[in-house]
C-alpha cells in the first residue's frame, strides 16, 4: 500500500514537472538530475501542493506584513494606506473538519498545476517559457482565490 502511494506520488511529480516546464525541457531536466534527488524530490511535489492548500499560510504572511510594514518606509510609498489595516474575520480553525472540505482541498491542490498551465497558455501565449506562463497564471489564480475567500468571509460576517 505504501509503495503504491509512493510511486503514484513520484509519477504525479514527474508529470507535473513535464507539464509545468514543458515536455522536452522537463525530460531533459529529469534525465540530467541525480536519481536519488528524483526519488526524493518528485514525491514531495504532490505533498507540498496538498500542504500548501491545507496550511493557512496567507494569515501568517498577512500578520507579518501588518507587523513590519510600518517600519519599512519603501512599502508605504509603494502601497499607500497600508498603515490602517481593515479588521479581518479569521477563517475556520480546522479546514479538514468536513469531509467535503478535505476532498476539495485534495482535488484542488492536485489539479492546480494543470489549470495553471492551461490558463497560462491561453492568457499568456506571447510568453515563450512554459514555466513563466504557469507562474504568471498561478499568481493570477492565487489573487482571485484570496478575493473570493475574503468576499465569502464578508458575507458570513453580515
TrEMBL record:
It is a multi-pass membrane protein. It is found in: Membrane. Keywords: Membrane, Transmembrane, Transmembrane helix. The chain crosses the membrane at residues 6-23, 35-55, 102-124. GO terms for cellular component: membrane. The keyword Cell wall biogenesis/degradation does not apply. The keyword Nucleus does not apply. This is Membrane associated ring-CH-type finger 5. It comes from Marmota marmota marmota (Alpine marmot).
